[in-house]
Amino acid sequence: MIESKFLQDNVQNIQKLMTLSPLKNFETGSLKQLLRLSKIREYGDGEMIIEEGERDPWIYFLLSGKVRVEKNGVAIRRIDKVGEILGEMRILDGLSRSASVYAEGKTLSLAVDTSATDRLASDDERANFLLLLYRIFSEFISLRLRLTNEELVKTKKELEEIKRRQG
């Protein structure tokens, strides 16, 4: 992994963040806070980004490339959409990482250290930062839950069809 220093809250970086779908509707002040806690990380093919069972404080926004999500060594999802969030469940529930994430090819991410809120100037900034994160998380989790429900229904129908043919 190649990692930058913490990013600066300059106009150019804020404009880049505004191109990410989950962040384009947020105020400049909120994006400044996010940048102060963020680094750019580059991963090579097969490199682990998140390790199942770990308890680190990082969340990731996919900037380029794609990743494979594995649970107990079984691939459960591939993500290649710029702006997708990785690692949010750990931050929401405080439990250990529920899955591992691996880069597939060269992958760039915006890595946000959620434990570095001391880099923010005030309690108000910290509260606004957390509100921003939870709003983003709720949108992504809702979408992922809908996709999971669709996959579950499809799998149940396939299983019923297999049982019908055998029985």
How would you summarize the topology of this molecule?
Elements: E1 2-3, H1 11-17, H2 28-36, E2 38-43, E3 48-50, E4 58-71, E5 74-79, E6 85-86, H3 88-93, E7 100-113, H4 123-166
Could you explain how this protein is built, in words?
The chain is elongated, with a radius of gyration of 18 Å. The chain contains 4 helices and 7 strands, in the order E-H-H-E-E-E-E-E-H-E-H. 40% of the residues lie in helices and 28% in strands. Strands 1, 2, 3, 4, 5, 6 and 7 form a 7-stranded antiparallel β-sheet that branches. With 167 residues, the chain is an alpha+beta fold. The termini are far apart. A hairpin with a 2-residue loop joins strand 4 and strand 5. It has a single domain, classed as Jelly Rolls (Sandwich), CATH 2.60.120.10.
CATH superfamily: Jelly Rolls
- SSE series: EHHEEEEEHEH
Q: In percent, how much strand structure appears in the residues?
A: 25-35%
The gyration radius over C-alpha positions equals 18 Å
pLDDT averaged over residues: 90
- The portion of residues assigned to helices is 25-40%
Largest sheet: 7 strands, antiparallel
As for the number of domains, it is 1
Q: Architecture in CATH?
A: Sandwich
What is the approximate shape? elongated
Low-confidence stretches: none
According to DSSP, the number of beta strands is 7
What is the helix tally?
4
CATH class: Mainly Beta
Predict the CATH topology. Jelly Rolls
Structural category? alpha+beta
For the record, give the distance between the C-alpha atoms at the N and C termini, rounded to a whole number.
Answer: 52 Å
